[in-house]
Amino acid sequence: NDPKEREEVTREAMRGGWTRDRVREEVRRRQAARRPSEENSPEPELSATPGKVGVYRVIRAKAGPFTGELGLDLGFASYYRPKEIKKFKVGDLVALEKGKLKPFKGSNEDRYTYHAYVSGIIDGDTFKAVIDLGFNIVTEQKLRLRGLDAPEIESAEGREAKEFLEKKLIKNGSPVRIKSSKSDKYDRYLAEVWVEETYLNQKLIDEGLAVRVSE
User: Fold this and answer.
1) Which residue in 30, 84, 85, 131 has a CA-CA distance of 20 to 30 Å to 213?
2) What is the pTM of this model?
3) Is 63 exposed, middle or buried (0-12, 13-18, 19+ CB in 10 A)?
4) Mean per-residue pLDDT for 20-40?
5) Which regions of 7-62 does DSSP assign to beta strands (E)?
6) 48 or 30, which is more confident
């Protein structure tokens, strides 16, 4: 997680054409070479708090056929214009409750939380899901678990991580809760995932199936 050391390893990896497994090997070597007091310092745990499903922010369209008109930011680059939007103003937070929009007194941190139906596991840190945006609108996305990195799928460790995700995320078709609002450099949305009350991102790290990475 040290920026200077990460940059140094990046340069060496690019010069040598390292695979991801070779990068992992170098990281482990450097960790082992640290002073005992530093080596024994625990990595900070991932931290995330789920928001509230069905919370949106009122925006004004800047382009397209509805330029200048009010709408709701549903996340995942999707917007919606309900009939009752005229009751609100730009910047207002609203909640969808029993099919009706009501003022919401929470914070922006409550946004971008959804129910998602996992449709496939790609590897130990990436999966596909159909996400319920509300208003009978859904989107299918490829999601990357935020803050961690699982081994390559070709390795035994990578297959174990994938199997763990399959057991946790594909269960009787029940939805999981996710929070996601930004994408990585490969245009995959980064996601926090909760299965019931378990924060899955940190659980993978706790089980030794992934490593913590800085963003």
Assistant:
1) 131
2) 0.78
3) exposed
4) 69
5) 55-60
6) 48
Distance between alpha carbon 13 and the CA centroid of its chain, in Å?
27
Name the pLDDT band for 39 (thresholds 50, 70, 90): very low
From CA 86, how far away is CA 68, in angstroms rounded? Answer: 13
Q: Phi first, then psi: give them for residue 183, nearest 5 degrees.
A: -110, 165
Task: List the one residue out of 140, 138, 142 whose CA is nearest residue 121.
Answer: 142
The single residue listed with the structure tokens 């995942």 is 76
d(C-alpha 179, C-alpha 52), whole Å? 9
**What does DSSP assign to residue 42?**
P
Torsions phi, psi for 159 (to 5 deg) = -65, -35
Q: Which residues contact residue 76 at a Cβ distance below 8 angstroms, ignoring those fewer than 6 apart?
A: 131, 133, 139, 141, 180, 189
Question: Which token pair is 115?
Answer: 């129910």
